[in-house]
Every structure is written in structure tokens, then in C-alpha cells.
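[Discussion] Sanity-checking designs against the backbone

I'm trying to build intuition for which residues belong where. Below is a C-alpha cell string of 68 positions. I'd appreciate it if someone posts a full sequence so I can compare it with mine line by line.
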């Protein structure tokens, strides 16, 4: 898997940190390593991989009917 983007999720408290990490996970980012703290900031490295960017449309299975 090729990493196409690297970002760091940051916040100054655990509640905001959880929200930011969950938001980025919802955008296709993955956790990279463990969370860490620098002074009063909690941080988590996040990466996005090429395979999650633009997936080709799904092909229908021959003989299978889709409900309308």
C-alpha cells in the first residue's frame, strides 16, 4: 500500500482528540503508530493509502438480481 497523505491529528484534551481522530478515520485515514503528547497537545499520526482513494465501481455478479 502506497501512503499518499500524512497528517497529524491534534487536540488539547482527550474528548476533542477522540472526535478529531474519529473524523479522520471516517475520511479514510488510518492510525500510524501510537498517540503521543507534546507539552499540552495530544497528537496522533494518520496516513491515507492509495487503495482507499478512488475505488473502481463494483461489478454486478452475473445472474444476481439487484432489488429496485
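Best answer:
Here's mine. Compare freely.
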Amino acid at each position: 500500500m502506497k501512503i499518499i497523505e500524512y497528517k497529524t491529528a491534534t487536540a488539547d484534551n482527550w474528548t476533542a482528540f477522540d472526535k478529531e481522530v474519529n473524523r479522520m478515520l471516517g475520511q479514510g485515514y488510518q492510525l500510524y503508530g501510537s498517540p503521543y503528547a507534546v507539552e499540552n497537545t495530544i497528537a496522533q499520526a494518520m496516513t491515507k493509502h492509495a487503495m482507499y482513494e478512488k475505488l473502481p465501481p463494483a461489478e454486478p455478479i452475473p445472474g444476481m438480481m439487484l432489488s429496485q
